[in-house]
Amino acid sequence: MKQFFYLFLVVVLLGCEDNFEDLHRYSTTQTKDYPVYLDMSEIGEIQVKSSYQQESPFKIVSNPDYYFVGDMLKGIHVYERNGESVSYLCFIECRYIKDFEVLGNQLYCNNFVDLVVLDVSDPPQAILLQRQANYFNQFTSHKTEWNIPFVEGKGLIIDTEPHELSGAVTDKQPNLDFKELDSLYDNLTTNEIPDSWFGNHPEYDQPYIGMIKLGLDEIHSYGSYNSWSICSYSSGTFNTREEDVWTEPRGNYAPPYYYLDAYPVRMFFQDSMVFILGATYGGVAGYSDCIVYDERYPVSYHLHYPTFIPCDITYFPDRRAFYVLSGQSIWGAFKSSESAYIERYVDYEIPTNATSIFKVGNHVITLGDQLTVYIPAEDELQLVTNYPDISGTCYSKAEDILAVANTQGLFLYDISNLENIKLIP
After folding, report:
1. DSSP structure string for 333-376
2. Residue range 58-101, pLDDT digits in tens
3. Residue 244: its pLDDT value, please?
4. What residues contact residue 282 under an 8 Å CB cut-off, 6+ apart?
5. Taking the CA of residue 374 as centre, how many other CA atoms within 13 Å lie in the half-sphere pointing to its CB?
6. Would the pTM of this model clear 0.85, i.e. be above it?
7. Closest listed residue to residue 84, CA positions, set 418, 399, 408
8. Which residues, other chains included, contact 383 with Cβ-Cβ below 8 Å and sequence gap of 6+?
């Protein structure tokens, strides 16, 4: 009799539990956001074409056989040297390129966030030697916001896509089971990069890239945090290392410094000095870090501009003067003879929309919709001459030859006489 009673009690209790669940079960719909990853299979392709319209040239580098002209977010135009003249050879498509360098017959360039190394000993038959994925997207510490979000092994996160799941929720299982949706949507991809990722100034947008050739066989770029990332490719092997101010033995040049409220927009090497140009997040102010070699301790000159982002800069050591383009005028910045401190800034109030500034001898040259020659005096820049028929968005200079690129092509000029600059046919 007791056994029958306990069995009856168990049945009643179980029935009550079922009734309790029946009373408290309800249906609901929940949404889960799934990341959409960038498919780099198309973007990452490197193709060589016979020609391509030169749209936004931004940099010129060369080796003994070729000139290479970077076209922003498009690729690289290759010109063959023929004595002192050049002829168009081919176009190396490298989508979303924003910087590149050449070491001998090796072309180093960014393919969005990847580093690509090409053998360009015969540019029309360029060969891919190395692709280093995410090379320009690995900042650490307080600069993680410089990275485009990504998941290791899956790629860059370009967007999210919401998906709904309907089901019953109980006290025993308060959360919906998304396993089926996870299996369907955990690997969503697209090969389209949002237009919002690139503005009118792509150099201001992520990924932040700068590449310079320091030495004969290494390329320096921004490291993970206040450091250089140094790479080379030799004998079929890609090598990379980090070098910061505490590294022993320390390199010749101080590593770039990452500011809390600013980011770099351009880096170049000129006259044995590393120049880094940057902008603040507000987009109004800017800075230049000018790094010189010092075997005792790394030395940098920091220039701050409260009202503009610098377009370009050059340095006259004899005058201890930096000359800077603001986009509207030419500025001078004079450093102390005792230290790296900048003593004074001067706005010469010379209206100009030039984008390049450099020195030839004791002259200041600006290049934009025309080429202009100045000679610096104590507190002014004295105009020497204008060349309205010479225009360009970037240049390179070697001895008495000036290479200038614009949307019409690449042009070489003899600048041995600045008062009579001549086109080399």
Report:
1. EEE-SSSS-EEEEEE--------EEEEETTEEEEESSSEEEEEE
2. 999 999 999 999 999 999 999 999 988 999 999 999 999 999 99
3. 86
4. none
5. 20
6. yes
7. 399
8. 372, 373, 374
- Residues 375 and 354: their CA atoms lie apart, in Å, by 17
The most distant pair of C-alpha atoms in the chain lies apart, rounded to whole Å, by 122
Strand ranges of the sheet holding 100-103, from the earlier edge strand across to the other edge: 100-103, 106-111, 114-119, 127-132
For CA atoms 80, 82, 84, 87, the dihedral sign is negative
Task: Find out whether 108 and 116 touch, Cβ atoms under 8 Å.
Answer: yes
> How many of the other CB atoms lie within 10 Å of CB of 261?
8
Residue 33 tokens read as 């956001």
Q: What is the pLDDT of residue 25?
A: 63
Q: What is the pLDDT of residue 337?
A: 78
pLDDT tens column, 385-424:
999 999 999 999 999 999 999 999 999 999 999 999 999 9
Contact criterion met (CB below 8 Å) for 269 and 313? no
- CB neighbours of residue 134 within 10 Å: 17
CA gap 298, 370 in Å, rounded: 37
Q: How far is CA 158 from CA 112, 189, 331, in A?
A: 13, 9, 40
